[in-house]
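The protein record quoted for completeness.
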Amino acid sequence: MEINVSVVVPVYNMERLLGDCIASLKKQTLPQIEFILVNDGSSDHSAAICEAAAAEDSRFRVIHQQNKGLSGARNTGIRAAAGTYIGFVDSDDTVDPQMYDVLYSLCKDTGSEAASVASLIHYPDKTVSTGGRGLHVHTREEAMRVMLEGTHFDEVVWTKLFHRDILEHVQFTEGIIYEDTDFTYRALHETEHVASLGLPLYHYYKRDGSIMSAAAADLRDDAVEVYAGMYTFLAENYPELTTLASRKMADVCLSLLAGMAAAPDHADRRQQMRRIARRMNSIYGEAVKDEALPRKAKVLLTASKLHPVLCTYLLQRTKSVKTRPVF
């Protein structure tokens, strides 16, 4: 049987939430779909839950491996996938029944190599939708722009579907954080067209300990290297997007510096903060010309250019420096 879509689900110690994720996948309305559960060395009952799902529903396959991290588990799933298109779901989230039916139709009906829908972000006290826009079919250049602007979609992979040919050239980099950002801009570069629809079909739960929350809370300066790589790539291949790319990099640099400056161990993070400051200095000329960059951010960039300690001093006395939300 021909498989239209493969959905890769990395699983690591998610026994409490995995059942809800699997239940939502079982309700998918798209025919010829498979779900690849990659048990990434779980030490709880996640493996047994995966096996039970496969025993009950032939659309599920289970792969067990030693822990390789989120990117490693996704790459394992990609290699095993039989579908023409491949999508990704985090094991602590859920999806609406028609999600992959809609994504597959978007690709087929518009001749696009990738498609994206919107999400509902569930906080403990509220729910926020990232949707609202109608159907758009973007050229590669337009897709890269709207990703940077965060208007029609952003860098997360779990709202998207990719033709498998793209993944012959692009896989997830293992051992880093912000792996979605590192992956998505390179994947978009391999497309001709990307379809987007602001229909919220993915449910992301903002919990302490969730996959995305853990990444956001991880104050590692290698996150800056991901955005620096994207900046260099875009400057070489899409020079008209250099200003947007510098804004994105300034955002993540200042966000990380603010987190480090407020951390109890900030005095032990001086080397990290200096490395981030050097990266900010490399985009200073482009960033300060950006009319959309807030004045406060430009002051901090200038302070960093003068001396990293001055920037840290100001950060410890400011409430907010984010130019736009990273997540």
